Amino acid sequence: MKKLVALAVLLTTGCGAHIAPTAAADTVTVTNCGQRVAYAKPSRVVTNDTGIAELMFALGLGDRMAGYVIGGGQAKDVASSPWRADFERVPNLGEQITKELVQGAGADFVFAGWNYGFSESTGFTPDALADLGIATYQLTEACRNGVGKQRGIMPPLDALYTDLRNLGDIFGVRDKAEELIVGYRKQVAAAEALVKPNRPKVFLYDSGLDQPFTSGRNAAPQDIIGKAGGDNIFGDLDDSWTTVGWEAVVDRAPDVVLINDYADGEATTPDEKRAFLESYPPLADVPAIKHERFFVLPYAALVESPRNPAAIEAFARFLVDSVHP
């Protein structure tokens, strides 16, 4: 088996944010998932998922965290994280977020998202936490858009910048948020300068053997692919992460497969995922498979996170080198 093309996406953490003093009883009101919400400045935050924790770390807010929760499949993301030192300093509270866990941590604020911790099936919801006196902030990538449980209310990079600004306001570090956004916009613009006119079709493969789990237009891969010069073959789906059928993948004939390095399901490594794709008969004539065009990015670079701009740059360079030699 040929070695996968892979790249560890690294970012510069920069200096810590200055936390401005707050007068007693001060609150800040921001728009989160279409609702105006007032927040007192939190001091004991619990996050769920690596990308969400990294948003806090990028803003220099590790000292405001009571801890973080990450799934077992995200250990590699912590090891490769530009904020690994923050992950080591802040308590790891476990792999499954629950009401009991956040209460035990003394949390006054939970930063999570639908399917990024919040779930009716587990009873861990913003309403349930409000009943306990715990404020919540929902990841904008995971906001529900009013159609069942579909998620996503704005383009993915806009979601990233919105959350950075909102968190900057809530925690009194808006200047740091704007500094990050300016830097990310420059990084994305530099990647877009590499884009060639002929845009390859890209299939984001997260997991799934019977049915593939992929990205619609509201999840981070939409902008990672698009800003890098490709077209997401499922960019017409008004959802974030979603399940499709293999027939649709075959019909849309991707030129490149972007693999999510995330341990889920039966094929848990990028090598195992590629081996499955190359051995699955219906995909034999798909251009990406025939021409062996695969690229791997870490899970934490493909969900909304401060790694997104670097992921765009890395994928743009791959497309230039491998699809437009």
From TrEMBL:
Protein's UniProt name: Iron complex transport system substrate-binding protein
UniProt cross-references to InterPro entries, sorted A to Z: ABC_Transporter_SBP, ABC_transptr_periplasmic_BD
SUPFAM superfamilies linked: Helical backbone' metal receptor (SSF53807)
Family the entry assigns: Belongs to the bacterial solute-binding protein 8 family.
PROSITE patterns for the chain: FE_B12_PBP, PROKAR_LIPOPROTEIN
Lineage: Bacteria, Bacillati, Actinomycetota, Actinomycetes, Pseudonocardiales
Residue span, Fe/B12 periplasmic-binding domain: 44-325
Any single Pfam family the record assigns to this protein: Peripla_BP_2
Keywords: Signal
Signal peptide start and end residues: 1-19
Entry keyword annotation includes Signal: yes
